[in-house]
Structures
1.
Amino acid sequence: MKITFVKKIKADGSPCKKCADVERRLIDNNQIDLIDEIVVADERDNDSAGMLLARAHKVEQAPFFLVDDGQKIIVYTVYFQLVKEVLKPRTLEKNLTP
């Protein structure tokens, strides 16, 4: 499973406050290590990696997460839903593995 976190840089060059909040939560909750890739959607560059992912997956808000299980990609736009459905089970799995 691969988890990609897409955060936004606003048109004025400042970081998205909600994105920074979610990133802080990931760090504070020791979940950042469960994220495989962090990609930036830079509003100043429509061809930035994050903007391309947003268009490809029809996402209009940031932050968002892409969870690729090898067969399909699920988009999460709500951090708490990602935690409940993906990160907590993955944390349990990681802790149970010797």
2.
Amino acid sequence: MEKPTNKPNNPNFSSGPCAKRPGWKIENLINANTGRSHRSGEAKSKLKLVIDKSKELLKLPSDYIVGIMPGSDTGALESALWSLLGHRGVDILAWENFGKDWIQDVVKQLQLSKINVYDVNYGDFPDIGKVNFQNDVIFTWNGTTSGVKVPNAEWIPDDREGLTICDATSAIFAMPIDYQKCDVLTWSWQKVLGGEAAHGMIAMSPKAINRLENYTPKWPIPKIFRIANNKKIIKGIFEGSTINTPSMICVEDALDGLKWAEDNGGLRFLLETSMNSFQTIYNWIEKNDWVTFLSNNKNKEYLSNTGITFKICADWFESKNDDDQRLIVKKICKLLSDENVAYDINGYAKAPPSFRVWAGGTVETVNIKILLPWIEWAYNEVKSNYV
């Protein structure tokens, strides 16, 4: 295959931290409140603005509260687990790395006894028909490391007794989410809007708030996870007073991303951009018999449109052992990186040998289109050394 000549104008396809918005420059952050206390009026107003703009852009229900948390999505999700669980049994779903991490928290750290675990391999999706909604239910909306997402929220009943706690970090701003089905939603700045890392967000329904105000877990809660105290919501967290010191440069960057999304059409624009990129890769995979999605369910409803994950399925490749397959994928990715065409598209280390191309709203579909012939070229270059 002839080597392509046209290259993406942005080769950043990492699944986190993700590509900055088109046109981003460091000069955009010149008005950051650096050197100021995050408790100052100016800084606090910007933190509150991130909360308000996020809620507005997402069109979250008016009675949901939103706060900024330390520790990225992980810190936000952990705060929900440590603060809300223990009141009733727990059902937890996992089909990729982060969901499996939440199992470890619930089983080994919090040591809850009434637990139903639905843990399946990468590429599979659990049987959601078995979930007991009398319990609290924990799940990721989008399998960040497997490329498998929940098809919709129809499986979640409106009259559930327990809370639904959703890790939405690789889905929110990129996938339509029925918020009323999720009592807790968590995400980070570094994903779909391409913000800087280390800061997370949490949104909570009135039902989740009611749990905080009427139940106290039996275990001590570290300060960094504490969103209630003596059955009272710590209101400041949801008004711009963060638990620990945030980076005001990151705050400015988050506001820049939110404003960019607003100026370009809001949530609809973000969803359409991601789906257009996904459709481009979907069509490409349909035309090439040497590559397929990592997901065992090829129904589009189950395929992630952000962390788009696919693998080589050619006979010559599948005859190799796991170590050799990983080496082959690594060589392909290195070729693309050396050509300054695509950075960081090797699949997650714990996932099967695969590629993962981020296609959130900050990634222009035209760059996805330009990338795909390069992947074919690199594949054939590496293949020639094995076949």
